[in-house]
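Would you mind writing out a protein's amino acid sequence and the numbers that encode its backbone to help me picture the idea?
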Amino acid sequence: MKRLVLLAAIGLLATVPWIANNRYVFHIATMIAIMAPLALSMNLMLRIGQLSMAHSAFMGIGAYASALLTMRLGLPPVASLASGGLMAALVALLLGPVFLRIKGVYFVLLTYAFGQIVNLVFQEWTSLFGGNSGLYGIPKFSLAGYRLTAVPQYYVFALLFTALAYWMVRAIERSDIGAILQSLNEDEMLSRSIGADALAWRIAVFTFSAAIAGVSGGIYAFYIGFLSPQAFGFQLSVDLVVMNVIGGTSAALGPLLGAIVVVPLPELLREARQYQLLIYGLCLMVFLIFIKQGLVSLVDRPRRKPA
């Protein structure tokens, strides 16, 4: 019941931009809707006990692929968007068999190094990616002759993808697959003993979550119209972790709540820019000390493990 009330509250919150009828509020809401699926993709990795710092790179791959396929090859934006997600998934599928044999801090460092390499490629391959000057002139998204030009249109577009990503992650959470993923995190030996191929499941999650990140990147590219390597750096990976910590990792609702809290913070603290990191850190400490299971635990208490 509490979950339904909270979902209804989030739905009501989603109407705030239309109530405010303010372009800036629409922009903030659109960025939340773009980042929420990305936080959900990170949540999937955390469910199998792997902290990935590569998902900012997957978002970048999806963003640049979507933009370049439309700009250079003339593909329809919808085809470019899907291709961007597939490219991010393909990269994850190729790396997964190597990366996912490693666990713990070594996996974190490996994915961090991958993210830095991808970002360096974006910076140094100026003829293709535009380098630090960025990639300009990305056309607006269009589908069946209908072109999205206004911020509210992109807000609806991003909201629809957020709803789809939430539905998919929630479906996984409630299915037998969700139980397998949970067992991989809590007791991998047990899951192996009942016949689950741990590596194959980890690769599947890594690939699927990279696809979500890639599509989020594509929506970001068409919305902003400009891409820079800085947007897909280490800070984004940290933000995704923070969204999951604040929102909670035990349910798909957690990353949504985390995105709603974290994404607007830089804008809310714009007048106190010099204190942004300090306030950011204090907020994180408060949540870690007083709400360890995240905001979602206030309405959806984690089930107690059987004795």
Q: What stands out?
A: The first helix runs from residue 2 to 13. The chain has 15 helices and two strands. The first strand starts at residue 142 and ends at 143.
